[in-house]
Amino acid sequence: MNEALSIRLGVQQRVLPAYRAPFFDLLAQSCRGGVSVFAGQPREDEALGALGELHVAEHFHGENVYLGSGKLYACYQRGLLPWLEAFRPDALIVEANPRYLSTPRAVGWMREHGLPVIGWGLGAPPVGSFWRRMLRERFLAQFDALLTYSRAGAEQYCQAGFAREKILVAPNAATPRPIQPPPERPDAFSGRPVVLFVGRLQPRKRVDLLLRACANLPPELQPRLVIVGDGPERPALEALASQVYPQAEFAGEKRGAELEPFWAEADLFALPGTGGLAIQEAMSHGLPVMVAEADGTQADLVRDETGWTLLPGDEEDLTSRLADALSNPQRLRSKGRAGYHIVAQEVNLEGMVEVFLRAVQLVRRN
């Protein structure tokens, strides 16, 4: 970990999910002036799961006012300027999302005080019209630097006109660098192989595809399918499982130490939909992973040597990949070991914090 910076760091977020809290607490340990996170409440129809609690960083509770619904919503955050006045950060990190309508006022406040602002986002997918490209370039130009999760996101920001030397890639992480050695698993399965899913049960996770794909496998390859998590989609998924794959096991929501036995007995982690911070945790337990690449953030983590990347929404592809994976336990073990080393050396909370600190140092020098 880098030496602690003498800085008061402010971070704007729309919401504070539970998986992000450990990162902000670890970041706060490296900022002598402290870290204050401004965040409000999720939308009423948003299946976000538990919200985070901070123990080292400060959480300033804003009020989110949502306009519209679905993917077209916008958000205005009340209390953002009073928070800045009270905390007075030396640098500010904001979500680089133009739908957050109050962010320009926060950027303006920082500019009035001669202080830097860093944008944090997934990237900037190509847009068609000249006017949309111009608006995007103007939006990005307000930042002194950009943080993104992946090389793909960094390249998109470059294509949108942002200076490459001011873009830093901080791979998305939810767990610390593993301190335990990778678990030793036998080269042959002891009974049926175990395929594990961990995550919020909501439509975008596509657990329905996983149930159908397992049912499509020949009987000798059909695994124990263990589904860990809860959410609005659980009743529908249990009903589907009773029809197509009744041997599927729904374990409910588990966290922390409760998850350890599930990681230990699994042979393969599968996530056929979007999201995926559990991917890193699975890899830290020496598991190969099978995921659908949704937003580009998985590309730097899931490689040929660590697992399989699925075609999004394609049941036939998922079935074929499962058959391939479960027919060769030795290869599963090899991919699991490679994934462990990537998480231990490259993608972890400590590494993410280090990149954020480099971004802060970059904007303070300029």
Structure write-up:
This protein starts with 8 loop residues before the first strand and ends with a helix. The chain folds into 2 domains: 9-173 and 348-365, Rossmann fold (3-Layer(aba) Sandwich), CATH 3.40.50; 194-345, 3-Layer(aba) Sandwich (Rossmann fold), CATH 3.40.50. It has 366 residues and is α/β, with parallel strands linked by helices. 35% of the residues lie in helices and 19% in strands. The chain has helices at residues 21-28, 80-87, 103-112, 130-141, 151-159, 207-216, 234-244, 260-265, 278-284, 315-326, 329-345, 349-365, and strands at residues 9-15, 35-40, 58-61, 63-67, 74-78, 91-95, 117-121, 145-148, 167-169, 194-198, 224-228, 249-252, 268-271, 289-292, 307-310. The strands form 3 sheets. Strands 3-2-1-6-7-8-9 form a 7-stranded parallel β-sheet, sandwiched between helices. Strands 12-11-10-13-14-15 form a 6-stranded parallel β-sheet, with helices on both faces. The longest helix is centred in the last third of the chain and has 17 residues, at 329-345.
